[in-house]
Design a protein that fits this description.
Length: 322
């Protein structure tokens, strides 16, 4: 009987029965992290910082590969197809939860074809105006926009982008009526904000601090639920009267579907330890972002909530699907 059991076990190993190639102890080989955006972007920087800390922990190479294109869709598709493989991961931005409502057809199911693993980092945005704009507060901006509806332009980096959708959500929640001015990227949008042609915009706080310090731009409110320690004098939009308003730029770690539970536990525990380290806190602070601190189940729920939230905003704004 013992001999028979040994023969059966040997056959299982030989032919792959019962033991999938990815069910080994993780990590069994090098780990690749796909970043579906170009090098140098914040997504890329935070991914590389985390990868550099995971390599020594896992004692295998942790390689970051940029696979940009189609608003992150090309790189995301590679992850979706790597069913069960914990050695292929992805760090991406909020595009991941916005794209399902912007595109008629994606080459993957955004809810089914990914394992949400960890919130890597997040950062508040700020509602910013040109210094010549008359509103000094959020309440004054809303008042002007209601008195003269659709006469104030708010700029964005493009249709369906995060700061476009922040502007749409602001209108829904405040009752203000602005009109959208889309640009092809952040540089022209910022140039026209500074020139006063598009006097209102939602932008990353870190990117506008120099212009605030020079007096060319004025911050009306941050988009987090708590004030930002680096800019404590700027109220939140929630306390300024737009109750419940929260829009964060955030970056998440995902894996393919059907990952082994042991691999998920190992990845999330080690990533959590890395994010809690003093090195990462200091490094992320230089980028104007905060390390994530959610459990894996919390992050999975957050991803679902964000998909639903932006889906409603896109539908309300009648943004046509591409």
């Amino acid at each position: 009987m013992i001999r028979l059991m040994r023969v059966v076990a040997a056959c299982c190993v030989l032919f792959g029965f019962g033991v999938g190639s990815h069910a080994q102890s993780f990590p069994a080989t090098a780990v690749k992290i796909i970043v579906p955006f170009p090098p140098g972007a914040t997504t890329d920087i935070v991914a590389r910082e985390v990868a550099n800390q995971l390599g020594p922990r896992w004692r295998v190479p942790v390689i970051v590969e940029n696979k940009a294109g189609a608003s992150g869709i090309i790189g995301s598709e590679q992850i979706a197809r790597a069913v069960g493989d914990p050695h292929l991961l992805m760090v991406t931005a909020t595009h991941h939860v916005i794209n399902p409502s912007l595109y008629k057809k994606l080459p993957y199911d955004p809810r089914r074809d990914f394992t949400s693993l960890a919130l890597i980092a997040s950062a508040p945005n700020v509602l910013i105006v040109n210094s010549a704009f008359p509103a000094q507060t959020v309440a004054e901006l809303i008042k002007i926009a209601k008195e003269k509806p659709a006469t104030i332009g708010f700029g964005s980096t493009g249709i369906g982008g995060a700061n476009h959708l922040a502007g749409e959500l602001f209108q829904v929640m405040s009752g203000a009526k602005l009109f959208h001015i889309p640009y092809k990227g952040s540089a022209p949008a910022m140039n026209d904000l500074l020139a006063g042609h598009a006097p209102v915009m939602f932008a990353g706080l870190a990117s506008v601090i120099p212009h605030m310090q020079s007096g060319r731009l004025r911050a009306l409110g941050v988009t987090s639920m708590k004030r930002v320690p680096t800019a404590p004098d700027i109220p939140t939009l929630d306390e300024a009267g737009v109750k419940g308003f929260e829009v964060l730029s955030w970056f998440g770690l995902y894996g393919p579907p059907q990952l082994p539970a042991a691999a998920v536990a190992k990845i999330t525990a080690d990533v959590g330890a890395v994010l809690a380290s003093a090195h990462i806190k200091t490094s992320f602070n230089r980028q104007g972002v905060d390390p994530g601190a959610m459990s894996q189940p919390e992050f999975a729920r957050y991803v679902e909530t964000e998909m639903d939230k932006w889906g409603r905003v896109i539908e309300h704004a009648k943004i046509p699907k591409q």
